[in-house]
Amino acid sequence: MADLREMYQEVILEHAKSPRNYRALEAPAVRAEGYNPLCGDRCTVYLTMRGDVIEDIGFQGSGCAISRASASMMTQSLKGKTAGEAEGLFKSFHQMVTGRNSHGDRPQLGKLEAFAGVSEFPARVKCATLAWHTLEAALHGEHVPVTTE
Ligand code: FES
């Protein structure tokens, strides 16, 4: 288990250093802003939908390593997913980082399991979910910045 945890942390560090899909998408992409009032970090998520499917997704923002890595891995996991599947992943991810489900209950999370250790650090839950809250706002077409509070 210790090895597994180390490997997972390495994935997080690697994504924090070289975030994937770190780019703005041109209109008519949907865009939403997220904000963590505890630290002042911000995140913008861009989405291009084809019907109900996420065709392309990008993000930009200033944030800690966990929030950057989480946004990066979120964008990788969501391309080609429907809005409903994305919401389901967020629910499962949120339950995982708050310690409310077990490994066997979330087979669909795949690489996002890297963030399971966050449940031991409640102060970092908002870091890990900032991009996801912002994604939800984008899916719902909210134009007012969302916060993690
Ligand atoms: Fe700000 Fe993590 S410290 S999002």
Q: Please count the helical segments.
A: 4
Q: Report how far the terminal alpha carbons are from each other.
A: 32 Å
The H/E string reads HEEEHHHE
Radius of gyration over all CA atoms, rounded = 14 Å
Count the domains: 1
CATH architecture, please?
Alpha-Beta Complex
The major β-sheet equals: 4 strands, mixed
Ligands, ions, cofactors: FE2/S2 (inorganic) cluster
Overall outline: globular
Q: Beta-strand percentage?
A: 15-25%
Percent range of helical residues: 40-55%
Which whole number gives the mean pLDDT? 92
Topology of this structure?
Elements: H1 2-17, E1 30-36, E2 41-50, E3 53-62, H2 65-78, H3 83-97, H4 125-139, E4 146-147
Parallel strand pairs: 1-4
Antiparallel strand pairs: 1-2, 2-3
This protein binds FE2/S2 (inorganic) cluster.
Short description:
Helix content is 40%, strand content 19%. It contains 4 helices and 4 strands, in the order αβββαααβ. It starts with a helix and ends with a strand.
Structure description:
This protein has 149 residues and is α+β, with helices and mostly antiparallel strands. It has a single domain, classed as Alpha-Beta Complex (Sufe protein. Chain: A). The chain contains 4 helices and 4 strands, in the order αβββαααβ. Strands 3-2-1-4 form a 4-stranded mixed sheet, with helices on one face. α2 runs parallel beside α4. The longest helix has 16 residues. Bound molecules: FE2/S2 (inorganic) cluster.
